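User: I'm putting together notes for a lab meeting next week and I want to include a structural view of one of the chains we've been expressing. I don't have a solved structure, so I'd like a prediction I can at least talk through. The sequence is below, exactly as it appears in our construct file.
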Amino acid sequence: MTTYIIESPPKMAARPDPAIYIAPPGLAYTRVQKLFAEFFGTFALVMFGAGAICADQFLRNTNMAGLGLLGISLAYGLTYGAMIVAVGRVSGGHLNPAVTIGYWVTHRLGTIDTILYWAAQIGGAILAAYLLRYVVPEETWRATALGTPDLASGVTRLPGMLLEGVMAFFLIFVMFAIGLDEHGIPRPVAGFAGGLIVTVASFLGGPFTGGALNPARALGPAVAANHWSNHAVYWIGPLAGGVIGAWVSDLIFLGTPKEDAGILR
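Assistant: Thanks for the context. Below is the predicted structure for the 265-residue chain, given as structure tokens.
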């Protein structure tokens, strides 16, 4: 008697989601919860990132030592890291349209969710900027345009776009790297990595472009202060960097399933 063994076709591996924190099994979040997480996370980025620039200006106006590049960069990076830890479990901790578009082009986020994430991020950024405008003395926020990023003297638009794009590229690169680790990344470690790349990018970009890395971070203060100088730089550069960073990250970090790896040897 002949015995036949019928093998089922191999299952396609699910495309891994490079969220910086994977929710525990059985715990899910609604779309509304995710949007509120993005809203408040981006609100905090603008409140403390742009607010540090206003605080630096206020201290200088009162003949006190300002925060300087180090203090402003740390405020931005530490806030980013803290918000990743706080809301990463809910929404993935994008907090940046450039990160969200990276998820979209790699088919990890649908078009509707991408648009809604952008709306939540932009809404949080604008509200935070208007709150800063209300609480910061007028002469202080006008001197800094509420922390709206702009190009330094001698830096033209194309180099500015390239610099913002490169910084956004490495932000996406880091986020995808820690998100695609098969064993998962503890939230504090993920927050440290995300905050660190934003901090060091601000060290480089701060003197030349303001080191925004984030279209929402640029748009919020620009709306509240009505300051639109070179604004397109802060959309084109980071969005292009986000797209390229996501594609390159997929190329490097999206491995072959272990059961199929032997075929390539």
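A couple of points you could mention at the meeting. The chain has one domain: 31-253. The mean pLDDT is 86.

User: Perfect, that's what I needed.
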